[in-house]
What does this fold into?
Amino acid sequence: MESGDAVTEYTEVVEAAIEHAEKPKRTAQLLEVATELGVTAVSIDVRHPSLTERDWPHSPRGCIFTPPDEYVGSWPAAWAIADRAGISRGAGSTGSHQADTSGLVPGIYEHRGGQWTRFDEEEI
It folds into this structure.
C-alpha cells in the first residue's frame, strides 16, 4: 500500500467515525424540534402501524413519521418537523414526510415522562 492510499483510507475512517458520532446529536436536535411542536411520537426510517397510514405502500427509508392525527397549525406534524429541522425533501402525506435522514439514528421514538425514548418495533 502506498503512503497516499493509507492516508486516504485513514481519512475516510476518521470521517466515518465523526459522522457516526454526530448522528445521535442530530437526532436529539430533531426530537427537540418535535418537543417544541408538541409532537408525541416520531419514527425515522422505520414504519410502524401507529405512525403510518394503513395502506402506505412505500419504503420508510428517507422518511419521518408522526401520528397521523397530530398537526402543527394546518400542517401534519411530520411536515412541520422536517421543515423546521431543515431536512425536508418536499413531499409527504398525512403523518409522513420525505426527509434527509442520512444524519439521523433510525428508530421509533416516543415522548414519555418528559423525555424521548427509543423503542424497537416489537416493544410498542
Notes: The mean pLDDT is 84. The helical segments are 3-36, 77-85. The chain is about 35% helix and 25% strand.
